[in-house]
C-alpha cells in the first residue's frame, strides 16, 4: 500500500466558513479591478460637495433653473443601488445623510471606464465628476463625466428593503447601522450639537472647563460599585472613576469658583435601557450658590438647549410631548412616595417592613438600610409615573452623604433629582462643606460597606483635609449626557445614543 503518512501531515486547505458566494464574487472582482490597473487603495479624493450638500442646495431648483446654473460637482459616496440599462447605468450614492442619483453613459465616460464600472458592487465607494440635472420625473441627478474608485465593500450590505433590523447586530457593527439607517447618524449629530451648546452655555457664564482623573486611588462622588485596575509601576490598586465630584470640589476649594467637566464615568452595575457601565456626564460646580440656584440654572440650560436644537420649548418623546417651559414642577421626595407609590402611608412607619418590601423590588444590590429601601421604592414605583420635568427635592440625608442637611428638616438633604419621562436626568446638592460632618458621613457609609452594601461611599480622608482648608457655600450638579440625548433624540434605549455600547462577547 502507498505510504500516506505525508498526506496526513499536510494541512488540507480550509475555506473560511463565514464566506458566502457573494463574498467570493467580490474578491474575484477585486482581482479583476487590480488587473485593469485600478488603484484599490487611493490616498485621497477630490470633492467639491458632499451628497448632503448637493441635495440641500440644489434639490429645490426646477429643471430649467438647474440647467441655467450648469452646476458642476465632484462628489464621493457609497453606492446603494445599481440599475443597468444597456449602455447606460443609473446608481444611487449616499453619504449616510442623503442620497443622490448618478447617471453613467458609455459615450460620456468611455468604453473602458464603463466596463470597469460593471465590476463595482453595492456598498463600494466612488468619486464622480459631472453636471447636475433633473430627470423627467424631477429627480436630482449627476450626469457623470468621470469617476474614480475609492474603496471596495467586500461583503454584501443588508437587504435594502428591510435595512439592518437585528438590534444586537446594529450595536456590534455600528458602521453597518450608520450605512443602512441614516436616522442613526442624525442621533449622533444631534448629540454633538447638544454638547457644543452645553459648552457654549457654561463658557458664556464664566465657567472653566477642566479635566479630572479617570483613575482614582479612592472611588468617590457617588454611590456605586467601581471597576478595579492595577498600576504596575506604582504597585497600587486604582479604580475607574464613578464620578469626578470630589476632585471638582477640590478645585473650588482652590479658588476656581465655576468649573465644569464633560467626560466618562464607569460604574460596575447592571445593564438596562437606561444604564451602560461606561457613560458620559456633565458635572458643574459654582461657589456661593446652593441647590435652589442649581434648579434655576438647570431650567435655563435645558430651555436653551430645546430652543437651540428645535426652535421651540417642547419635543416628542414616545407617545408624550415633553415641555421644557420654565418653571419646572417641584415635588418633595416624601410627598412623591406618599402620593405615587401606591403604598398606604402607615406602611412607611415600619422600617423593617419597608426594607423587606424594597427587597422584592431590587433584583440586585438589595437595600440594607431604611433610606436605600425608600430609594428603591421611589425608583420602581414613583419615577415611572413622572413624565414632565420635575425636581424631586429633599430626599433622606442617609442616601445623600455629600449634601448638606435640609434647613427645614435635618433628616433630609438639600438635594434634588430632575426626573423626566420616568428617568433621572440630573442630580444636584447644596454641597456639604463641614469637614467633620463629612468625615462622620463617610464613616457611616463605611459601616454600610462592611455590612455588604457594595454601593456605599468609601472614606476619603484627603478630600476631608481639602474641606478643612475651606469650601465656600457651593452648588453642584451632574447631568447624564446619554439620557438627555435619549430624551431629545426620542430614543427609548441608552444603546441607541452610545456609538459603541458594551455588549456581552459572543
Q: Can you describe what's shown?
A:
The protein is 34% helix and 24% strand. It has helices spanning 5-9, 21-35, 51-58, 63-69, 106-109, 111-117, 167-172, 174-180, 182-204, 245-253, 291-310, 333-340, 351-359, 370-382, 435-450, 461-468, 481-489; strands at 72-85, 88-94, 99-105, 125-134, 140-151, 208-209, 215-216, 228-231, 236-240, 258-266, 278-287, 314-317, 320-323, 329-332, 390-393, 415-420, 423-430, 474-480. The chain has two domains: 21-157, Nucleic acid-binding proteins (OB fold (Dihydrolipoamide Acetyltransferase, E2P), Beta Barrel); 180-328 and 388-496, Bira Bifunctional Protein, Domain 2 (BirA Bifunctional Protein, domain 2, 2-Layer Sandwich), CATH 3.30.930.10. The chain has an eight-stranded mixed beta sheet, sandwiched between helices. Helix 15 (435-450) runs antiparallel to helix 16 (461-468). The model is unreliable at 1-14 (pLDDT under 50). It is of the alpha+beta class. It has 17 helices and 18 strands.
